[in-house]
């Protein structure tokens, strides 16, 4: 276990995340600093020859003083690293001060481990957002490279990818009046089963089948309210996620999609996407219903084309079912199909990923989203991790390189990117798509460019103000039963939330 002692809790998440990135397999504990935990800083560098690459740290002490930041790293063998950086919280912005801390800590841990991280000190979800803003500010590529390297320690490979994505995002967004529009998210929190790695709000359709009708009634009530929120804004994208929306019956889907089309104005909608997701939830009738109501983008997500992996992670469908569902989608006229895959799944190696890619190539989807496994606190893979000891892949970088090569060779270009906590090898999730097949909703939500009205259990409404720029959030409850019983309260909460935003806008 690595103990972290901080004199100021304001930066505990940043310190915690960087330590976890350098020591992904270690348990990390944050503690309040006391006099007993502060080591003598006059020791200087006593790391010695054996400390560092082979010796794990047992303690990290960080002090925030009036004119400097001090960090002491103590190793299990008694070796030490001590470093300071000039800083003044009163004269610097919080962001400047924080980045000084992160750069100092990164340098020490890089020295101790001999490792460099592809994304450097970036611990947030949206690294391309930084590059997007630099391009908006008319910085040249060399300036962007310089800023990302010196300020954040990012690798040139990741900077190059970020620039490519940001330029493509910017081109696509110039075709949309996103500042004066909004997008709609509708959550269906039911799945055929819960995958080993999943921490999303999802409920077994088998166990919660008795709640589906009541859930839909509550959701329809929120949809009718939601259609009144932005009378003067144009609806840009509609996204059905979850869970797995296609766990609903064809009749239920028909009713729900009809309700949305009845109450919302689709005149300016650019994208209407439904996560079909699990192939074992897809039927010809459901695919026909999606076409009937104008759905123009769907996802069929295998995650892996290895049967051994599907069985291990609890997908409860076969590789053959994936192929059959995809063929059925094409047969029913769906011409914009995304597929998701995950690299870093337990028990897989590069050959497994290469075979999955070869099988995906034969299906020829219009876009491919490559996720790097992120082990979430609430996922079974974390809570039951003792059952999967020895199954952690050691060559995730090679897996990613295989996906990059595949995308390049098959005319898929990167168009959006985001990161999560505890991602294997400090990598990222990246969406690839052929021209005119990009997922616009993915860009809007990941770059936080537009207000997202989220309806349904677990939905997070995100209000984006552009003048002045700020973002505020309003969450729905995650529990299906609570959503059903508290729907009137949740609608009233939203009503007050949006009134506050309108009042704030009028005061500007």
Q: How would you sum up the global shape?
A: globular
Count of the separate structural domains: 3
Tally of separate helices: 16
On the 0 to 100 scale, the average pLDDT is 89
Sketch the major β-sheet.
9 strands, mixed
Estimated radius of gyration: 24 Å
Can you say what the CATH homologous superfamily of the largest domain is?
Answer: tm_1862 like domain
Describe this structure in words.
Mean pLDDT is 89; it is low at 34-54. Helices cover 38% and strands 21% of the residues. The longest helix is centred in the last third of the chain and has 21 residues, at 487-507. It contains 16 helices and 18 strands. It is an alpha/beta fold and 508 residues long. A 9-stranded mixed beta sheet has the order 14-15-13-12-11-10-9-6-16, with helices on both faces. A 5-stranded mixed beta sheet has the order 2-1-3-4-5, with helices on one face. Strands 7-8 form a two-stranded parallel sheet. It has 3 domains: 2-113, Double Stranded RNA Binding Domain, CATH 3.30.160; 127-172, no CATH class; 176-492, tm_1862 like domain (pyruvate-formate lyase- activating enzyme). Helix 1 runs parallel beside helix 2, helix 3 crosses helix 5 and helix 11 (350-363) runs parallel beside helix 13 (396-409).
Concise structural overview:
38% of the residues lie in helices and 21% in strands. By secondary structure, the protein is of the alpha/beta class.
Question: Strands, helices and their partners?
Answer:
Layout: E1 2-6, H1 12-22, E2 28-32, E3 57-64, E4 68-75, E5 80-86, H2 94-113, H3 127-136, H4 141-152, H5 156-173, E6 181-188, E7 190-191, E8 203-204, H6 212-226, E9 234-242, H7 250-263, E10 271-277, H8 284-292, E11 297-300, H9 307-313, H10 319-331, E12 337-343, H11 350-363, E13 367-372, H12 380-383, H13 396-409, E14 413-418, E15 429-433, H14 440-446, E16 451-455, E17 460-466, E18 469-475, H15 480-485, H16 487-507
Parallel strand pairs: 1-2, 1-3, 6-9, 6-16, 7-8, 9-10, 10-11, 11-12, 12-13
Antiparallel strand pairs: 3-4, 4-5, 13-15, 14-15, 17-18
